[in-house]
Design brief:
Blueprint lengths: L16 H19 L6 H8 L3 H5 L5 H23 L8 H18 L1 H11 L4 H29 L5 H21 L6 H16 L2
Length: 206
Amino acid sequence: MTSSTPGRRPYAARMAPAERREQLLDAVLRVVAEQGVHKVSIDVVAREAGVTRPVVYAHFADSNALLRASLDREEQGALEQMARVLPDGREESFAESAVATFGRYLDAVLEEPERWRAIFMIADSSTPAFRARLDRGRRGVVTTLETALETALDAAGTATDVPVLARLLVAVAVESGRTVLTEPEDFPPARLRAFAEQQLRRLLAV
């Protein structure tokens, strides 16, 4: 419960330090997802969380520390989600595995929409440090995809430029994630999955 005095901001309810920190990082995520990275400041985050500036300063030295901590948390969360998205070996073919993986990826995006809105927004950001971290993650995904594509295309007898294809598929996945968040009625997951399956089967001739 909070108490207040006319003309003054209500006092924030007491929380354990770890709980308060998570509350503040939740507020940072909402600000990034809804307004952009450049809007993150001690004042804005304090208002979003419904606390005073000293409460924020008790946990973070400045807005850069807020952003770094938020990025660390969401990056870890995204990695954990992607670990569950990866092929589980139950699919019989590469096409089936790729379509199932794509579907699980879209489900992961919808499971944590604010996280992924922020990730996609940061991907468009001109902030070098944030872009560099996302680029490292993207390179890792591309490398893994190249290996899988080389094996699948060799088996199908299909010749193509695998490095280019891998990068294009990652770009399609990113845009699909954005679209399923911004235009869910026109582009629901089922429609995107059906298109992905059609194109993959055409590519692999299966």
